Amino acid sequence: MGKPTPPFGVSKLNPPKWFRFQTAVRGFQRGQIHFLQKDEAADQLSISKIGAEVECCPKVSLFVPKPDQFLVARSTLPRYPTPQAEYHFGLVADLDLNSRDPQEFIWRLGRPKGRVVKLSSRQQRDRFTVVWDEELELRSSTATRNRSMEPAGVFEPRRLLLAFCDYSGIAYKIDALTGKVFQRWVIADGDGNEPKPFKAEWATIKGDFIWVGSIGFEWYGTSGEILHRNAEWVKVIDSNGWIRNLDWHPVYQAIRTATNTTLPGFLWHEAVEWEPVRRLWLMLPRFASNSSKYTPGLEHQDTTNMLIIADESFVNIEVKRLDHHEPGYGFTSIRRLPGSRHLFMVLRVKETAESQHTQAAIVDLEGNFYTDPPYIQVGSRKYEGLAFL
């Protein structure tokens, strides 16, 4: 029997030509700026200059296109700085309808800042806690149907702080110092030719592209019929803002098969992260059911503690269960701890008609917790965006 074929075409996409060249420069010192000259005639890249060393984030790459030239600031091998005592991060809340100012035509959000602090300990396993700093207010006057600033994902690619609104489809650039927000892209639903905005629920960096996804399953009409599968599309955005639309239906189906959530069940995604060192997709679904279709308003009864680990082609999918599950709490974000080979910060949210609450934890892919208590209280809001600063 031959090697199994990936269930979708994502891994077969032609990467940028400079990306294929990366393996040829692995011998150079990590953390250098490599100037790569594009040679159209030879269909290859050649090194024109090697610059001075720079500090590179191990999680993302800086990709700045220039005329006939690319400037790539990245480590040719995964670079892990010495583990730090503190890791600064920011959160963004999704307040739904409550983000609208009652007096002005403006939408406001609070963006609290905090630090993951490593505790001094002689224990075999590291321990962390969270210390909170000041809160920064974010403002926008752009809306869709009187709704705006409901970000479901926030992260810091290429030293830009970006947030994606799950209602308007707008991608915002956030000024981390002033709290000002700027429209960067408006993302259309489905294959990109739909009039409705894309319901962005997760975002991550893979290579030098931003990958943005939605909840990942079919949408039903009032009679129970399937109306469309727009939420199964994924958007891949390059450094110029060009958006490629990928049909991830086979991907999501492979995941649902592995998790036993195929029809009549469902699996709702909000926390997805690409892990570049081991080249793994990490997913912490918020809701899951193996026996009933999605019914609006009832999904909060179906929170889950699943951790999904898949290879790049989604051929090998592993499903684990995290301890300390509490009914009502579902995951909304996952981000790798900067400089760490194996630790991740996760958020989980409990949402009812009367209240919202968020908790955070530091975990590894074996399901071990590095916070004590396992989940740290964040606050009485629904935080769906997490970015290390």
From TrEMBL:
Keyword terms: Calcium, Hydrolase, Metal-binding
Cofactors named for this entry: Ca(2+)
Cross-referenced SUPFAM superfamilies: Apyrase
Pfam families to which the protein is assigned, alphabetical: Apyrase
GO BP, sorted A to Z: proteoglycan biosynthetic process
Gene3D superfamilies in alphabetical order: Apyrase
Lineage: superkingdom: Eukaryota
Family note: Belongs to the apyrase family.
Protein name per UniProt: Soluble calcium-activated nucleotidase 1
